[in-house]
Amino acid sequence: MSLLPYTLYLVTGRYTFDEEAFLKRVIEACENGVTMVQLREKDITAADYFKLAQKVKAITDRYHLPLIIDDRVDICLAVDASGVHIGDEDLPVDIVRQLLGPTKLIGVSAKTVDRAVEAERLGADYLGTGAIFPTKTKDKAPLTSLETLAAICEAVAIPVVAIGGIKEHNIKTFAGSKIAGLAIVSDIMTAVDVAQKTNKIRSQIDQVIGRSETDDIESK
């Protein structure tokens, strides 16, 4: 599995934006360094989720980027997204694999080494680990230490993406880490200038993680 798609993993949030403004921000992020997009919607009907996912997929397809759907296996299948991301309260990993088949990506939230190892064994393609820093996206999310993040990276062979409160100013915290990439929500979605912010974050990540397309190709 290529590590490159996970480098700058945008997780969407609509905040107070209308649909047009939201989609414009997704486009600007995709144009300026995002390598993967997760559409995350919690309070929305299935019909509206499907319609929005279709529109976001048209964007990610235009920029040849993977689209991951948060939680909803049905929406993933309905729009033929690249995969789904699931948490502890969603369907079991092995059942999701049965439903999606062998080619779709399955991301799993893993806050402990045990959960990470189990998720890999059951068929996960990558892990999302956090929250590393306090985040308003999930107010009650317990923090995951950098030591636990490092232990998870050592325990599994699949890519690990750090998430939770990650912003441009704290990216250097991950210097020397074995993570495959960083998931960003508010620092991109609520930026005054999404294009400029995405460019800056991507540049920071490339410097800190030290992974390029050339490195990725040579590691295969």
Any overview of this molecule?
With 220 residues, this protein is an alpha/beta fold. It has one domain (4-218): Alpha-Beta Barrel (TIM Barrel). 41% of the residues lie in helices and 15% in strands. The protein is built from nine helices and eight strands. It has helices spanning 19-31, 46-62, 73-79, 93-100, 113-122, 146-155, 186-189, 194-209, 213-218, and strands spanning 8-11, 36-39, 67-70, 83-86, 105-109, 126-129, 160-162, 181-184. Strands 1-2-3-4-5-6-7-8 form an eight-stranded parallel beta barrel, surrounded by six helices. Helix 1 runs parallel beside helix 2 and helix 1 packs parallel to helix 8. The longest helix has 17 residues, at 46-62. The radius of gyration is 16 Å and the shape is globular.
Which features would summarize this protein structure in a list?
eight-stranded parallel beta barrel, disordered C terminus, 220 residues, 9 helices, TIM Barrel, alpha/beta, 41% helix
First-residue to last-residue Cα separation: 8 Å
- How many domains comprise the coordinates? 1
Percentage of residues in DSSP E strands:
5-15%
CATH superfamily: Aldolase class I
Strand order of the largest sheet: 1-2-3-4-5-6-7-8
